[in-house]
Design a protein that fits this description.
Elements: E1 7-10, E2 16-21, E3 24-29, E4 35-40, E5 47-50, E6 56-61, E7 66-71, E8 78-82, E9 90-93, E10 99-103, E11 109-114, E12 122-125
Antiparallel strand pairs: 1-2, 2-3, 3-4, 5-6, 6-7, 7-8, 9-10, 10-11, 11-12
Length: about 140
């Protein structure tokens, strides 16, 4: 099927291309452009980002304060992070590819979410900038 795609992101290893099409994330093989995965989001995807190891793709749905994550290695695995009333100004990967950093709206807090199911997020108050205030 043909989807109208609004933006995309190449995986760091160059094997995949992820593209946003309204409430879908389409993952294609970079060489053949064959559609490998179609992931559904809660709302319209506003930003995509690949994990540094190219195993996961993150979709930022800032309108409702949600970040959704999928694995290209295991199509059954998925993760949904809901920041609730704090919202989501920016989400990004930590270099480990196993943690996600989310800066809330109005820079109230920075949450570090592990992808392990049993761990709780660590929260830091009042980060300076949502986009450029975090570096590794």
């Amino acid at each position: 099927s043909v989807y109208k795609q609004s933006f995309g992101a190449w995986s760091p290893d160059g094997r995949y291309l992820a593209a946003a099409a309204q409430c879908r994330v389409l993952v294609r093989d970079a060489e053949t452009m064959k559609l490998e995965h179609v992931f559904l989001c809660a709302e319209r995807v506003e930003r995509l980002e690949w994990s540094p190891d190219s195993e996961f793709v993150l979709a930022e749905v800032a309108k409702v304060g949600v970040v959704q994550v999928w694995s290209v290695a295991d199509a059954e695995w998925q993760c949904r992070i809901d920041e609730g009333l704090a919202g989501c100004a920016r989400a990004r990967w930590a270099p480990s590819s196993r943690h996600i950093l989310i800066v809330s709206d109005f820079n109230l807090r920075l949450s570090v979410w592990p992808l392990r199911g049993d761990a709780r997020p660590v929260q830091l108050r009042s980060p300076k900038f949502s986009g450029r205030g975090v570096a590794f």
